[in-house]
Amino acid sequence: MRILSLAVLPLVGSALASSSTRPPLGYHRTNKTAPACRAVPGGKDWPSTDLWAALNKTVDGRLLQPAPPGAVCHPTQPTYSSAACTAVQANWTDEFFHSGNPVSVEWNNWTNDTCLPDASLPCSGEGYPVYVVNATTPQHVQAAVRFAHTNNVRLIVKNSGHDYVGRSSAPYSLSIWVHYMKNATLHPTSFSPTNCKNVTIPGAALTAGAGTQMLDAYALTHTINHTVIGGNGRTVALGGFITGAGHSILAPQYGLATDSVLEMEVVTPGGDILTLNECQNTDLFWAMRGGGGSTFGVLTSVTMTLIPSPEIMGMTFWIGTGADNTQAFDMLAWVVSQFPDLADAGISGYPIVFNTVKNFIDGSDTFIKGIIGKLIVPNTSNATLLEGKMHDIFSHVNATWPKMFGHYNTTYYPDFQAWYAENYDPSPTGHENLMSSRLLDRPALTNDLDALKLALAKFSAAGQATVYIVSGPAVHAAKPRGGGNSVLPVWRRTYVHATATIVYPSNNVSISDAAKTFTGFFSAAMKDLAPNTGAYMNEASKYETDWQTTFWGDNYHRLLDIKRKVDPDDVFWCTPCVGSERWAEEADGSLCRV
Ligand SMILES: Cc1cc2nc3c(=O)[nH]c(=O)nc-3n(C[C@H](O)[C@H](O)[C@H](O)COP(=O)(O)OP(=O)(O)OC[C@H]3O[C@@H](n4cnc5c(N)ncnc54)[C@H](O)[C@@H]3O)c2cc1C
Ligand SMILES: *[C@@H]1O[C@H](CO)[C@@H](O)[C@H](O)[C@H]1NC(C)=O
Ligand SMILES: *[C@@H]1O[C@H](CO)[C@@H](O)[C@H](O)[C@H]1NC(C)=O
Ligand SMILES: *[C@@H]1O[C@H](CO)[C@@H](O)[C@H](O)[C@H]1NC(C)=O
Ligand SMILES: *[C@@H]1O[C@H](CO)[C@@H](O)[C@H](O)[C@H]1NC(C)=O
Ligand SMILES: *[C@@H]1O[C@H](CO)[C@@H](O)[C@H](O)[C@H]1NC(C)=O
Ligand SMILES: *[C@@H]1O[C@H](CO)[C@@H](O)[C@H](O)[C@H]1NC(C)=O
Ligand SMILES: *[C@@H]1O[C@H](CO)[C@@H](O)[C@H](O)[C@H]1NC(C)=O
Ligand SMILES: *[C@@H]1O[C@H](CO)[C@@H](O)[C@H](O)[C@H]1NC(C)=O
Ligand SMILES: *[C@@H]1O[C@H](CO)[C@@H](O)[C@H](O)[C@H]1NC(C)=O
Ligand SMILES: *[C@@H]1O[C@H](CO)[C@@H](O)[C@H](O)[C@H]1NC(C)=O
Ligand SMILES: *[C@@H]1O[C@H](CO)[C@@H](O)[C@H](O)[C@H]1NC(C)=O
Ligand SMILES: *[C@@H]1O[C@H](CO)[C@@H](O)[C@H](O)[C@H]1NC(C)=O
């Protein structure tokens, strides 16, 4: 979330709307002799020190047993140091700190608050992995996967640690840390997929390690005047982004990031290193492009087609009104209903609805409601399209509703990198954060403005909600290599990715329970508006009901078949993830079959 200051948990009571009644896909424990739970330290099947030492040899001495980063603030911990504590506290809101640490993640609760950098709170470290392989080669990954499989150890994958649904940390686990898999190679003119003799794909491409982060991918591709279709954060890494779909401000004009994938290298749950493309391992190639992270294997590198870096006409706009203006959401619903037409005309962007926030526009001590955002049109130096559309929107708003104020202006950028350098997502991290989201298609956005108004008002009740225009014509028409990929099919008719975020204080059970309740309330408000769409799994609620359909729709059953085939023993497990139904985390954090 950006631009606005952090929302605080609103203390208004709101009933949870009824959740879906579709029965869950159930699985029964068939093999009664397999261990009921993954090993836990101290348990009789936890691998011996010698076994861990042997793994360490196999991975070239790259096995780590990291202390939780916050331990430096706790006098009872061996790494305690008041100077180090000051530095960690100062860096706790910094995305680079968490992505550069072997075990730290961006949102506190995903380590169950078990060692925050605050001496007044407990520090057991139990929410963190026990061991970490600092992998730089597919062979390191392979060794870790085989070790976890053989020894019944819970396995996770951490990259940048950005995950909003908590998949990149887990108690009692071995973590494969892929952050340093950053080797990247440009193919300036064309790419031929491996063992695909009949195919040469024209145009520039990038092969990059799965730990490659957005800012590095953009910088490297800029050296040949191209760009990757990437996200707006700086430290988001390709691993989670590509496996989850990858939306981009360039997606409405060029397709989703995962639509641009030409080839992947993965380590399977069985420990094989495979190359996936349209000619070989095609089922896994399909599943790894949208089926989600840490489920079908570990992505070690990915090849993506690039686009010539487009010049960008950018716009900043806002429309606001006093928080007491009862017509605020009539205006907001109408403005948002224009987004499908804007996207079809070539416009994309990151608008955010704000609901009863301190007046950040003139700094006065009043409260306002409204919408603010950045829009772009790629491949043009002509501002007429953006200015014309926004002029029409302002005219309608001015003529229809009193007491609105607003502003827009345009700025030209010679290439995408120039736009990104000024407009990347600078969101702070290191707090408690729950998200809820929904993808909205044209009917949801235009059929019933009263319903849209109600949904937006509820959905932004925590202070703000994104209504990002990150899908549109090119996503709808995309022809991913190999005949398709596994992203939620609803992307092919989506215009707006709407997210609501709850930020709340640490270590307060009743507040965190309330935060969870609000997440359900937000999801329900959007489901009422758009019952037949779904949500983007990388930016969603961990507690989404009916998550199989919500995140994967009709692709779920094929994804599940592939998961069962490639990972019959559930070496990879996370939630909400494909095929996770036959295990559950117990109250103490151990992972057991259901
Ligand atoms: C500030 C910010 C901005 C964002 N902007 C965008 C955006 O513009 N567009 C967008 O689509 N999303 C965006 N996201 C969401 C982002 O896509 C997800 O958070 C994604 O999960 C991050 O992937 P990661 O690998 O960096 O993070 P991690 O948290 O390390 O990993 C996320 C998931 O992927 C798995 N994973 C990671 N690497 C691999 C791998 N090599 N092989 C297999 N599994 C792997 C992890 O196990 C976990 O399940 C943003 C998030 C933040 C916090
Ligand atoms: C059941 O699990 C045990 C122990 O993991 C394993 O040895 C055996 O092969 C499994 N049986 C089947 C039928 O999968
Ligand atoms: C792994 O081996 C390296 C090099 O010998 C050593 O420095 C490191 O401490 C070992 N890791 C663990 C967890 O013992
Ligand atoms: C914390 O941030 C400072 C700069 O703000 C940096 O110099 C320092 O290395 C960081 N420390 C850690 C542990 O990341
Ligand atoms: C992980 O490996 C990278 C690359 O070799 C190295 O630079 C880094 O220091 C290692 N991190 C830790 C914590 O060992
Ligand atoms: C990096 O990529 C180049 C070119 O693809 C390759 O030759 C090299 O072996 C890779 N290095 C590592 C460490 O993976
Ligand atoms: C990129 O564009 C710049 C400016 O147009 C030009 O000078 C440069 O030669 C181009 N570089 C490549 C690799 O095409
Ligand atoms: C190339 O050949 C493979 C089989 O080797 C086939 O599956 C694929 O569809 C072919 N691709 C094209 C573009 O003809
Ligand atoms: C910009 O686009 C408009 C509308 O297409 C066109 O009328 C105008 O001539 C263009 N301006 C320039 C400078 O090309
Ligand atoms: C709408 O009103 C605002 C402020 O009241 C004004 O700045 C703007 O020019 C008007 N826009 C149009 C298109 O009428
Ligand atoms: C116009 O847009 C630029 C870039 O988005 C921004 O920095 C600038 O402050 C804007 N001007 C006004 C008057 O808001
Ligand atoms: C925080 O994480 C713990 C442990 O996974 C979980 O039990 C709890 O429900 C989570 N709380 C929230 C608000 O997500
Ligand atoms: C989270 O931590 C609490 C103690 O603060 C503990 O009681 C609970 O079992 C932990 N939950 C998980 C899922 O580990």
From TrEMBL:
Residues 1-17 form the signal peptide. SUPFAM superfamilies: FAD-binding/transporter-associated domain-like. Residues 125-309 form the FAD-binding PCMH-type domain. The keyword Oxidoreductase applies. Keywords: Oxidoreductase, Signal. InterPro entries: BBE, FAD-bd_PCMH, FAD-bd_PCMH-like_sf, FAD-bd_PCMH_sub2, FAD-linked_Oxidoreductases_BP, Oxid_FAD_bind_N. Belongs to the oxygen-dependent FAD-linked oxidoreductase family. This is FAD-binding PCMH-type domain-containing protein.
